[in-house]
Amino acid sequence: MATLSPTTASACPxxxxxxxxxxxxxxxxxxxxxxxxLLAIAVLAGLLWFASALLSxxxxxxxxxxxxxxxxxxxxxxxxxxxxxxxSARLMQLVSRVQTQVNSxxxxxxxxxxxxxxxxxxxxxxxxxxxxxxxxIRAGIPATAxxxxxxxxxxxxxxxxxxxxDKGEIVLDNLRRTAYxx
Length: 182
Description:
Layout: H1 6-10, H2 22-25, H3 27-60, H4 64-72, H5 89-105, E1 107-108, E2 122-123, H6 125-138, E3 146-153, E4 156-165, E5 168-172, E6 180-181
Parallel strand pairs: 1-2
Antiparallel strand pairs: 3-4, 4-5, 5-6
């Protein structure tokens, strides 16, 4: 009986090459595979960075639903005017009154279709924001001094109204009892 050497025993009869581990022993092929892996990692890292940059821009911009609301209520969404108001006890009283009234008048309701509305009897956070915003505009606060901000609460998107003053920003949030200066 003939004995086979280890290289003969594992060689492929057709080609004379080793069937499974040729990529491990061929330094040129191993180098190509490493470069491909590095390139894939670099592309993935670049895509993640780009996605992160886009998300930060989206968070900084106004919500698209707010823009749609403004198309329907153009008189409430001017783009020229003062970007802040003077803080005073009287201003804070007005803001606090609007905060309390709107929070007590609107019944919280999760919407299946997210439509931003003002002066509703029930709705979600954006409806509270738009109602507060409308009332402050009617009370003489310039719309250009207010902005709608998207935040995250309990893992979900949440919207608050921010009024910019010379002393800081007043935040109106339906999840809080009172408006607060930050």
